[in-house]
Amino acid sequence: MATQKMFFSGFGGQGVLMIGRNIAYAAMLEGKEVTFLPSYGPEMRGGTANCTVIVSDKMISSPLIYEADLVCVMNLPSLIKFERMVKPDKFLFINSSIISQSATRSDIQIAYVNANEIAKNLGNEKAANMVMLGAIVKKTGVVSFDSIEHVMEKTFAGKKQSVIELNRNALHAWE
Amino acid sequence: MSERVLMKGNEAFGEAAIRGGCRYYVGYPITPQNELTEFMSREMTKRGGKFVQAESELASINMAYGIAAAGGNVFVSSASPGIALMQEGLSFICSAELPLVALNVSRGGPGIGGIQPGQADYNQVTRGGGNGDYHIPVFAPASIQESIDILYDAFSLADEWRNPIMILADGMIGQMMEPVTLPEPKAPISEDEIAVRKPWALSGTKKGHRSVVKSLRMQPNDLEKHVEKLFEKYRQAEKELVKYDSDRIEDAEVVFVSFGTTARIVSEVIDMLAEDGIKAGLIRPISLWPFPEEAFSKVNPKTKVVISAELNMGQMMTDVKAAVCGRFPVRLINRTGGIIPTSLEIYERAKKILGEYK
Amino acid sequence: MRTIFEPTKGMLPVDTSYCPGCTHGIAHRLIMECVEEKGRLGDTLGVSPIGCSVVAHEFMNIDMCESAHGRAPAVAAGLRRVHPNHLIFTYQGDGDLASIGAAEIIHAANRGEKFTTFFINNAIYGMTGGQMAPTTLIGQKSTTSVEGRKKEVNGMPLRVSELLATIDGAVFVERVALNSPANIRKAKKAVMKALEVQEKGLGFSFVEFLSACPTNWGYQPVDALKWLTENMIPYYPLGNLRCPEEVK
């Protein structure tokens, strides 16, 4: 893996930035170079949120991208807007619990992840982003599950055991 | 050296300042640097410093003037229109020769402009909007690690030169996260040490002499002498504070000049051009004042064109043209208003420009 | 021989640059006498404003700094952060404090900054040559209100002490006048109390001095004092507006 350019998009509150930040953090622990760039602005609560993550073995020049090795969309507007960013043969992750529409391209690898449903079955729909994160890690191997779990230990330190359990289960839930 | 940590730019600025010896921070809310003010409000008191939220940027810069006049190592931050309000104070501070570190996390302008990243404050920070003859050394980091390194040194530099040091970042660096290594904390100057290490500072006549911090000089002869003395210092700064990075300029057909985050996009463009067999190079000024004119003497004499790439209408191009001094044509690739061009856009525009110089 | 009077060591042995009949000199001396009597000359810091008294540091024998127009309270707030135990004051005129520096004085008072502000109200801009100030009286002529200040155009003269006295953090507020020996003695008592408030860390303290500017008012010094007495005091009543129990 030389350089992986990733883009995550959805509604605010879906934990989209959390997915990106976990991957960035895990990649750093693996000794990689990383940039994490969130969108920011006067957007209202619940408005759109997205972030760009680049992981590389070498120094990263531009933290901005116009095409991606991986795009993850958590809502329909994001699918419509960002499907075109995926490089041929690369990955598009679609949260099929929220997005009923299918992707239009046939030259890319598409994974439909019913993240909210899976999370709900585990006990809390809020963990949908962790289900999506797990799906991404499983399918692309951009970082290892070990590293992600290590990050979770740090970010969930001090939280209730049940919360930690829920998120760990969510991470491994997608088949 | 400590381990690598993932840090957001706006928090890294604060952490680096504290480790660099900053003990006083004055802020006022303005996007896109609010996380820094929030970080300092949490951290300063915890770590033996003082935090003040001022009623305006006018007040912040003048509180900072008071802190600096009293010998404290002070840090102020703001974003473009807030820095504009500080210009009055910066002029006073330069004349009074007070050390201070100011950070501009810049956004689009003019006026209230927008809150997306911009570089349209180049003139504001390198020329200054304050009145009178003065200069402020300005450094523009391109990464979070570089921001940390510059801020960490800035407080000793300000003390050494008895002058403000300005750091020009942009909203993108402020919001971005990158892995960084943090330097060891420096010991701050204690209240007792001030009278010894900064005898000019206001600490009371009990120290054995009277200190007056001022900028008023009603006699033209006195004022001229004072300004000449300041400029002796600036001339020295022009020699000692120049800082830049360059990449492949010795055999380039096209040389880009770009600073801050824009320079990172350009360095990707250079690789893209190299894949097409086009030799491109980059001069990245880190000190914007003093502008690194000397870098241009190393440019391949056969270079066809120099391209200034910036997020404004070509403010730095004036300095680039002065440095190039007619040896090469100088062109501009820019976006403004808070739009950041992708590497693809710059690559395509550069190819088009190159086509004119076959 | 017995010494019955000695000039305060708080003032440098030089002539001031103020006009004949100007009361800046009296205010300077009162403040510095109080600082000396408190034994604090060695650790007192003063901030001078923009205006005639920008050069106060040429006369007051303490560590001082100048400040940009109206910003003295911000500067003093900065000094206070570095030196928590020093005696710190700003010395400001009415153009500086009540006009361009209105925000800074209100917020310093509101934060309860532990320094003292001495406010010289002579109802005019002195240094710039007699323009209308926020404190210029109705009907009073100035170079920017040649027919006299009009309420409909310029609003009413601003009563700064009353304004500040509404702010919780301003724990000591008193207006005095430098128009007679008796009032000057009262003024010194107010200065003493304001500094005491500061020393006890009780909050922001403020003394307004009604002062004469014969040059820009266009009066002889004695007539200027008479004008102050007859016109300023009725509109700007003397007295204490706020005083904490601890210094009563």
Structure write-up:
Chain C: Residues 52-200 form the Thiamine pyrophosphate enzyme TPP-binding domain. Chain C: One of its GO terms (molecular function) is thiamine pyrophosphate binding. Chain C: Pfam families: TPP_enzyme_C (PF02775). Chain C: It comes from Flexilinea flocculi. The complex is a heterotrimer of chains A (175), B (358) and C (248). Chain A is α/β, with parallel strands linked by helices and 175 residues long. Chain A has helices at residues 16-29, 76-82, 115-122, 128-140, 145-155, 161-171; strands at 3-11, 33-38, 48-56, 68-73, 86-95, 109-113. Chain A has 6 helices and 6 strands. Chain A has a 6-stranded mixed beta sheet, with helices on both faces. The mean pLDDT of chain A is 93. Chain B has 2 domains: 4-240, Thiamin diphosphate (ThDP)-binding fold, Pyr/PP domains (Rossmann fold), CATH 3.40.50; 244-355, 3-Layer(aba) Sandwich (Rossmann fold). Chain B has 12 helices and 15 strands. Chain B has helices at residues 9-19, 34-46, 57-69, 80-95, 122-127, 144-161, 171-175, 191-197, 220-240, 260-275, 317-324, 343-355; strands at 4-8, 24-27, 50-53, 74-78, 100-106, 138-139, 164-170, 177-181, 212-213, 244-247, 254-257, 280-285, 287-289, 305-310, 330-334. In chain B, helix 1 runs parallel beside helix 2. With 248 residues, chain C is α/β, with parallel strands linked by helices. The longest helix of chain C has 19 residues, at 181-199. Chain C is globular. The chains are: A alpha/beta (175), B alpha/beta (358), C alpha/beta (248). Chains in contact: A-B, B-C.
Overall CATH class of chain A: Alpha Beta
Q: How many H/I helical runs of chain C?
A: 9
Unreliable spans of chain C are: none
Shape of chain A: globular
Radius of gyration of chain C: 17 Å
CATH homologous superfamily descriptor of chain C: Thiamin diphosphate (ThDP)-binding fold, Pyr/PP domains
Poorly predicted tracts of residues of chain A = none
DSSP strand (E) fraction of chain A?
25-35%
Rounded to the nearest angstrom, the distance between the terminal CA atoms of chain C is: 37 Å
This entry's quaternary arrangement is heterotrimer
- Trace the largest sheet of chain C across and list its strands: 2-1-3-4-6-5-7
| Helix proportion of chain C | 25-40%
Structural class of chain C: alpha/beta
Q: In CATH terms, what is the architecture of chain C?
A: 3-Layer(aba) Sandwich
Percentage of residues assigned to helices of chain A: 25-40%
Largest interface: B-C, 40 and 33 residues
CATH architectural type of chain A: 3-Layer(aba) Sandwich
